[in-house]
Amino acid sequence: MTVSPFLLEMKGINKDFAGVPALQSVDFTVSGGQIHALLGANGAGKSTLMKILSGAYRPDGGAIVGNGIPYHGSSPADAKASGIHCVYQEVDAALVPQLSVAENVMLDRLASPESKVWIRPSQMAAMSEQVLLRLGVEIDVQQRVSDLSLAEKQMVLLARILAQDAKLIIFDEPTAPLSQSESETFFRILHALKTSGVACVFITHRLSEVLSHCDLVTVMRDGRNVYTGSTADTDTNCIIQHMLGRTFTEEFPKVEVPIGEIMLEATGLRRGTKVRSVDVQVRSGEIVVVVGLVGAGKTETARILTGTDDLEAGRILMHGKPLFMKEPADAIQSGIVSIPEERRKEGIFIHESVDHNLSLPILSKLSNLGFISRKREQTLGSRIVDKLGIKTSSGKQLVQNLSGGNQQKIAIGKWLESDARLFIFDEPTKGVDIGAKSDIFRIIGTLASQGKGILYFTCELTEGIGIGDRIVVLCGGEITKEFKRGEATPEQLLYYASGGREVEHER
Amino acid sequence: MKDKLMNLTFRYGAVVVIIGVIAFFSFKLPYFLTYSNFADILGSITIVTFVAIGVTLSLIVDGFDLSVGSTVSITTVVAASLMIWYEQPVIVVITISLLVGVIIGLLNALLIVKLRIPDLLATLAVMYIVSGLHKTYTQGYNIYNHMEFPNGTKAPGEMDSTFLFLGQGKWLGIPFSAILLLIAVILVHVFLTRTKYGRQMYVTGGNAEAARLSGIRVKKVRTLAYVASGLFAAIGGILFASRVGSGQIDAGSPLLMEAVAAVFVGFSVLGAGKPNVIGTFVGSVLIGVLVNGLTMMNLQYFTHDIVKGVVLVLALAVTFYVLNRSKT
User: Fold this and answer.
1) B193 C-beta neighbours (distance < 10 Å), count
2) ipTM of the complex, rounded to two decimals
């Protein structure tokens, strides 16, 4: 069956953006039947390199050679035609939500010029079922994609790619939005792809996944390839050293803070099917972590508590006073602010400057009679940039040009000088590199030490254990268990997070 | 290289075209480059620019107001009828006319913000309703001084002279309305760029969900933008009535497309890349200069629409080509 394994080499790739070098003579090689991990802090150039490979960007210099033949793809369509596919984090963008699973899986075949004019729904369903079977997933192919969970959508997308003749698949942080059990399924699929001879490039921030699932690892830093080697010859510390260029000591800086009186008290929250019965309390100075798998209702609960969505039943008290929130503005007035999960869509304004982003919630304080004082806005901007260590060329820089971690710092930083007393974080470390991650934990710790309350929603069990004063487990829209600091182990959390029915142990 | 050229076109295109057009006409037409002609041009664009300011505001919050044309129509006949049919003092005339604009804005906001009808469709429907209303109100007649009713009686009043000054008066040879316009452009510009309200409008238009989560009352901002849009259209209507000294049926319908053209020419002025009032003004001037010059060159008036249409298409082409490019 095997001819010769597919081999793709990128040699001496250079790429500049407006004079700023993003890639400097990067070499990168992948071959069929291998899982090659690509690591690097945000802004290290991983995405740029992969965008060049998938045809979204053109390199300024260097060559791409596929099986010994120079490759001149200049568009994503060319790349796809030569068997190079990319699975982005935002799976929604690649699927048509109004169509069924079967139609989405066969989408590229429908779009290809050789396809027949008439479509037989039964045949299409059978073919797509077959593809899904190869991945070992069971999804009703007649379902609409809009009704699927994120993990299921990702599988549909993979099936769609598999339905074509894929030689190389780039995975851009595919496991970031997945829960642990979903990740397991994902890796089963990944290994199936590998054995069928597909070259897999795997971008992630989770080092444990790299070590246990990948064959090769390449680490990038500042637009250069700083390390390539077999995963057998390396370990976490070594990789982290290469990523950061320094040794990484503590992952969870945790400051002990006296815990004060009750701030937020929510009882019996209910909304739709996602939030069934949630009780949660946060005291001042306390970090309460709500852990739950994807789909447990974390984001939905966060949205209720920040006034983004209405609640159907239940009561929210802030400092003993009942809250009636119609809009986030009401929550903010009572001191509850949110750092939402979808930061590019909801947390920041990517087309605005750093200063404008940071000043937005407190414009009233910065203005006289409605006129914004530019000077006060700028000093506020540089103050917060310094305080949080945001890497930006100036306050006038557009936020879209910053890395994910710095964008997240801006989403947090904009609340620092407001009257916020309770911070609600929803997966703040998603898509953020390790350095920025520990900065974010440090910021959260500082906020707690100032007597603020922190409510932290995450699916990363270790994060919960690392920073939480109290850990609350959310499952199927209900709180199933509560742990004090030091009591919980990842195994226990996972046990309760998956409903206490099936026990899965973390590797 | 090609990208750079496109960006330059985007940034300075409109300005270069205006200078080019002015140079061309000045060369060809001896009376073009005179103070009085420029005062005329400024006078000719005031009404459409007021309307265009309203459209700019609705576009800033990522909406669109198609009903501005019929708002001009209805406020024109309301203003004229209040004087000619009911002999009301100027202050009442202006207040009620502006109020009509506000009410139409509120109706738009109700449909778009509360009932969540897409902006284009909602304002299209309102455009029809308002257009029908103003014809029903006037029974299809133009309103002029001492007009004769179908039953043979005559209307009691006539247009007030103070009111007429708004649209016809001059100061140092410059139309009074043009001075009003310049003041309005400056005030709105300062409002949009220097105040927190302006910032909130742009932010709402840029990303409504993020704005909401940042504590901006997005619904209120969008409602106010539509109200302001109605208000500026009403000012346009009042000036129209004053300019022609009567209440003409369907006065505003040609203004919609012209206003939209001005706004989209303005999108790209000095590389703003977003709706802005200075750009809108420049866009208006461009159209005004073109129409003025073409008229002086004895081009038939019905060809003007072709010219305006072409200007709009070019502006849209440059704007969207560059905007979409910068996104990828």
Assistant:
1) 14
2) 0.81
